[in-house]
């Protein structure tokens, strides 16, 4: 595509989607959570659980009796959140563990430390994310939105799958809830240029990462159900929510965003309600492969249902993780790209 168009189109698509979401929010009340069953004895990991919607998710799950592990890269903020939640929920089963999703090494170390605790795992909330960051790469050299929002969660989920499988049982499945976004409708997944090297646009990169998360969720759920595992995977869309996610907007857009956010954006607690619902409501027991928005199952973008694309993305993600891991442990990797599909991710 002609490069100025490749830069402008994702921006237009993202803003058009944003306006549509805001019009919807103007005429529809925020979804309010039903009374949820107690979650005593269940253990949840919430990525980015120290602030924004992640914090509200942690708060609600902890108030239902869940043992919540906040996984994040801001230690001080995490420990403050833990103190507040322990006080508010009246129990001490809220804790912080360091996880930097922009480092695949950190993801592996987090999983090792978590597994060493001997805890079960019933709920994994893939919530953390960044948006519209100027061109930057993760520790492993991946474009930041793709590497952090998508690839970090891809590895985390895969490394925790055995634990989620062992902790789930028929009638009480373990649940994987992944926070996507309406921006995925405007996302284009270019398998030949996942890192946006030919022409970087932060709007396109964010939308692509959110589309990748939906493709991943559908493929993951299909694999889990075909094996008969007691684990479900769903994607949620929180709407437009007033959080720090918008900190990378340009200054003019920030100036406009603030008053609009006051009027039309959801609060973090309202935004988190879809995630909490997917994590705990009884009606969703055994149901997965869904895209949930404002209390309902919605149709996601046409490309998110493309089975070939789901499979190709999965294979490519395994290859990227594998090659990165080999580099980290000092192996010279052989030229066997065709075999990567069969490689099971191990911690
Ligand atoms: N706010 C919205 O309007 C909106 C809309 C749709 C989807 N979302 C999604 O909701 C999720 C939560 O975002 P939010 O709106 O609460 O924003 P937020 O900025 O308040 O929270 C983002 C969280 O991600 C964590 N995080 C960032 N980089 C990390 C890293 N390298 N390792 C580990 N954690 C990291 C942050 O510490 C923070 O806790 C994101 O995935 C976002 O894409 C938000």
TrEMBL record:
Task: State the UniProt keywords alphabetically.
Answer: Membrane, Oxidoreductase, Transmembrane, Transmembrane helix
Q: Does the keyword tRNA-binding apply?
A: no
Q: Does the keyword Oxidoreductase apply?
A: yes
Q: Which InterPro entries match?
A: NAD(P)-bd_dom_sf, Sc_DH/Rdtase_CS, SDR_fam
Q: Which GO terms describe its molecular function?
A: oxidoreductase activity
Q: Which domain of life is it from?
A: Eukaryota
- What Pfam families has UniProt attached to this entry? adh_short
Give the family from UniProt: Belongs to the short-chain dehydrogenases/reductases (SDR) family.
Its recorded name reads: Dehydrogenase/reductase SDR family member on chromosome X isoform X1
Originating gene = dhrsx
């Amino acid at each position: 595509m002609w490069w100025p168009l490749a830069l402008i189109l994702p921006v237009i698509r993202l803003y058009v989607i944003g306006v549509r979401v805001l019009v919807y929010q103007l005429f529809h009340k925020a979804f309010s959570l039903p009374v949820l069953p107690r979650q005593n004895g269940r253990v949840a990991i919430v990525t980015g659980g120290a602030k924004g919607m992640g914090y509200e998710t942690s708060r609600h799950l902890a108030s239902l009796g869940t043992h919540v592990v906040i996984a994040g890269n801001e230690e001080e903020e995490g420990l403050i959140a833990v103190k507040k939640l322990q006080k508010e929920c009246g129990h001490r089963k809220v804790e912080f563990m360091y996880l930097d999703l922009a480092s695949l090494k950190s993801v592996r170390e987090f999983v090792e430390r978590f597994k060493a605790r001997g805890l079960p795992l019933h709920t994994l909330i893939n919530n953390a994310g960044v948006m519209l960051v100027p061109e930057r790469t993760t520790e492993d050299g991946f474009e930041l939105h793709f590497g952090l929002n998508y690839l970090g969660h891809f590895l985390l989920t895969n490394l925790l799958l055995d634990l989620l499988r062992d902790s789930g049982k028929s009638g009480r499945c373990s649940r994987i809830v992944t926070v996507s976004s309406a921006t995925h409708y405007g996302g284009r997944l270019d398998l030949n240029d996942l890192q946006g090297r030919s022409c970087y646009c932060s709007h396109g990169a964010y939308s692509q990462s959110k589309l990748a998360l939906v493709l991943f969720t559908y493929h993951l759920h299909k694999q889990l159900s075909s094996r008969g595992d007691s684990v479900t995977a769903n994607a949620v869309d929180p709407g437009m929510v007033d959080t720090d996610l918008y900190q990378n907007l340009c200054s003019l857009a920030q100036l406009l965003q603030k008053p609009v956010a006051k009027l039309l954006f959801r609060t973090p607690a309202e935004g988190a309600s879809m995630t909490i619902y997917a994590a705990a409501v009884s009606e969703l027991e055994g149901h997965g492969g869904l895209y949930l928005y404002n209390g309902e199952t919605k149709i996601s973008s046409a490309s998110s249902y493309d089975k070939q694309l789901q499979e190709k993305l999965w294979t490519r993600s395994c290859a990227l993780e594998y090659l990165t891991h080999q580099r980290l442990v000092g192996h010279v990797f052989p030229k066997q790209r065709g075999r990567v599909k069969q490689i099971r991710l191990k911690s």
